[in-house]
Amino acid sequence: MIGQRLIPPRIVPLLTSLAAIIAAMLLGGIFLALRGKDPIAAYVMLFTRGLGTSYGLTETLIRMAPLLIVSAGLLISLRTGVWNIGIDGQLMVGALFAGVAAAAVAGQVANPVLWIVAAFAGMGGGALWALVPGILRVRWGLNEIITTLMMNYVALNVTSWLVKGPVKDPAVVPPQTVLIPREMRLPDIPGTGVHIGLFVGLAAVLLVTILFRHTVLGFMLDVVGRNSQAAVHAGMPVNRLTLIALLASGAFAGLAGANDILGVKGLFQGNWNPGYGFAAFALVYLARLKGLWLIPFAFFLSFLSIGGEMMARPLGIPTYFVEMLEGLMLLCFAVATWFERVRSPFARDEDVETGSASAGEPPGTALPEAAVERVAAAAGSRP
Amino acid sequence: MTAGANSQATRMTDHVRPTHDGPDASSLSPRGGLTTPRIERSPIVQMRDITKRFGPVLANDHISLDLWPGEVHAVLGENGAGKTTLMNVLAGMYQPDSGAIRIAGEKAPIASPAEALQRGIGTVYQHFTLVPNLSILENVALGANNGFILSLGDTEARLTAMLAEFGLDTSPHTEIRQLALGQRQRVEIIKVLMRGTRVLLLDEPTSVLTPGEVTSLLALLRRMRDQGVSVVLITHKLGEALAVSDRITILRAGRNVGELGPDVMSGTTRESVRRLVVEKMFGGSEPSHPAGDFRRASGELLLSLREISTRRDGGAPALKNLSLDIFRGEVFGIAGVDGNGQKELGEVIAGQRHVLSGEVLFGGRNLTNRGVSAASRAGIGYVTDDRLHEGSVAAASVAENVALKAIGRKPFSNGFWLNRHAMKEHAKTLIADFEVKTPGPATPIGMLSGGNIQKLLLARELALDPQLLICNKPTNGLDLRTAEFVVRTLREQADAGKVVVLISSELDELLEISDRIGVMYNGELVAVMPRAEADPETLGNLMLGGPAHARQAVS
Fold first, then answer.
1. Are A234 and A71 in contact (CB under 8 A)?
2. Per the CB 3.0–4.6 Å rule, which of A375, B22, B99, B467 could disulfide with B49?
3. A-B contacts at Cβ under 8 angstroms
4. Rg of chain A over all Cα atoms, to the nearest angstrom
5. Per-residue pLDDT tens digits for B16-71
6. How many helices, marked H, and strands, marked E, lie in chain A?
7. Of B55, B420, B444, the CB nearest to A359
8. What's the N-to-C CA distance of chain A in angstroms?
9. Which residue of B has its CA nearest to A362?
């Protein structure tokens, strides 16, 4: 009872994530085989095209930037115990704001100033979109899972309307904002075809890591996420912290939107929705809510989606296959964490009896049973 | 006088005790004179030497208990006395470690709640199990129909009759959410009875009811008894038990410490039964410290509560116009059965619970509704009774947990950047000073034993050097040595000129270190007395809502 138990080596959570990925790929292989495709050939092509070609590698690194930014923000909210399902909507609004702001100042200011204006506009837009669910949650206790999810649909339609009317580029027919000239967009990292947004992504991850390791704010957010009753008992401003987490997560999503406008697209188009939100959930959980772990997993998921697209066409597999793989990973991850808690040699007696989350593992890093459903619901009904 | 009462108690229980043993127990049972001849002369349920252990806690220690058909049998005891565990064993929720259950004379292990129902044992829990947006009929039919196709017609006819009989003037198609709590409880009872229940277990059935609903529930229990049902009433409310029971079993610290049969119940006055029960529930031991050994509270006024009213989490009133003055240098003990507002009182002082009206004055400053951190900075510390869910973050390290309440202050941070080194060093000091058994400051606190967590929570508060420390059940679940250490530490705080508010249901502990003791009942401070005037019997009586001086009243 004294508690000199084995403490799981730090590697165990990582192994759990890897096991989930491998299991998901095996299951995915079965699906491929059922469709009459050779799974081994498909996976070989996935790796050779995704990683083996410079085009694949470049695209993978470009895709990493928004994923890193979005998941850094999602990490903040999930560690605070706040389920921000509205990443996609916040990203769209942020992207629209960034596109409009950048176009408004284009040609009048130096490029870095334009980028900063666009970045702040994006963050403002994302945070604004998270503010509504935030206030509903802290003032009236409305569940943020529902409200953030619903705000996605509002975002889709509001941005679509704005881009068809008030902020439309009058010079062109399709609904879109004014194009930012290529020379004003984010430059490439010298010697590569990857724009410097990747550094923004890495910086975002670093910032969040420092937040949780070294600051009072991060400490308090963690306490709220792990045990909000204890946070109340310790006199922490739980409502304010909850709001901060949601706003920060929305701001990061908006920044990711700005990143794609400035780095890749140059303008905001109606109905543009890259759907990073779902991938970010998979990413943050596979990284076990640990900041720095986001980087390798973001690389992997980016590679998966780029390589998947490149493999799917020649083999005649729907591009949805990659999204299915991501979904399978989350499912396998939920099962794997259960095994980690209950069946591993490190499991505690009580866990084995009750099969429930416990002290040994920070509650946040295990995927709660309901989590899979929530994420799946969010993904399935994504605008 | 106490000694006299004791020997009387012994005589009485000796008289009844033999009902437990031997095949001819029924002939020894002197229930004949009490009620009616319809009663069969053998117990319907016999529990023998039931033992149930949870880790280090012996919840049931060789408890034997007989239930007779057509009786209301109250099982009384403090929180943690083992009542609920014993009933869960009978209801098939827990398997006893040892001991046997016989039903109608046959050996009948009960492996699951479903099996208990099959054998005619039905349970109504404190927390209702009805589905709010299904109708009464659907709720009653839920689980009762084993077939694939739901046949409600037959059930509906029986249910309509039952509803009328139970005084529920409502259609079987009414949705549960439209019913008041008391009505829902009746539906729960009907639901259980409709499955052929002969033994009905009720766990604290009156805790959610209004006084009017309580009266009609008790009347209902009597009627069920008259129809031959054996009703088991688990409660810590003595008044209700006395009003309705034919037999009372008293549990204390996991043991059956006495049974009062119908002869005692009907043969003596209610007051003398009350006195017997109180003695058994709380122990009639003479105070271990001679009165007058304690300094009287004579320091300056530190905390003043003025007509505080507040609600509990569910919205029901928790404190009603409570006023209290506490002085430097004293341990102020608060006695009470769980749920009578003690926890809320502690939370109000600590700034953790909003008051609806009234004032909290501390050292001349008004702290009313100023929040936890204001109270903490003013010098108020609070050790909660819920050390796992409220006091600590199980997954966080020992170091993080002991810094939890002062994380924004030096040395743990400069307000923005954490100083993890200082947190760790602080934790090391506390671990050494309080002899906490832990692999180190980096270990998640949830991996420590309860006693060690408790030491750390106490150490955490003391390190902030509070002028006033509220402790809610600080020795709950601790081993003797740790408990003594905690109690001694608290006494030392007061001796150093600070104030300790000790909330506890352990009367021995309160009597040991308090200078004054207040008793809470139903959200009110029903009595405040100097230690010298307090004894277990007086306190126990007050805790159960009785008059302070039952003894005088009787004699």
1. no
2. B99
3. 101
4. 21
5. 333 333 333 333 333 333 444 444 578 899 999 999 987 767 889 999 999 999 99
6. 15, 0
7. B444
8. 51
9. B395
